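Structural prep section.
Before we set up the soaks we want a predicted structure of the protein with FE2/S2 (inorganic) cluster in place, mainly to decide which crystallisation condition to try first. Input record follows.
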Amino acid sequence: MNTQTPFDLAAVEAIIAQRKATPGALLPILHDIQGVVGYIPPSIVPAIAEGLNISRAEVHGVITYYHFFRQHPVGEHVVQICRAEACQARGCESLADHAKELLGCDFHGTTDDNKFTLQTVYCLGQCASGPAIQIDDDLYARVSKEKFNSLIQAKRGVQ
Ligand code: FES
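Run finished without errors. Recording the tokens verbatim:
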């Protein structure tokens, strides 16, 4: 996985400068950086730590504690499949196997065309309507294999 993807360093530094004086600024800074860059580049951790006057270990600890934060570049679309208990009871593992086969990558992997990154998530708040998935910011419930295929085709621009 390429961890050397170029990113807009000036934009990231601006986020740190803008928010660093705010109490509890670390999480908002990390959210903003991931929003702009798509992930938290490991190379920016020292600048965050210095800006907030905390240790690099503290910054790293927060990044790794919250699964939401990514440390590697992702594809154009992030596909998250819920694999928590209620969705397991509704067949999410079969859907997960199907997704891996369709996309040709495993969890935490990205398709060869860099279009999709496949991830696991544990509960999307749709427990009564599983299997649930999220593609980018959009939630989908009762996702069959056919529905999954349609969603992926739509993201690929195939009708
Ligand atoms: S268990 Fe899947 S949405 Fe809650």
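Observations: The first strand starts at residue 77 and ends at 82.
Flagged for discussion at group meeting.
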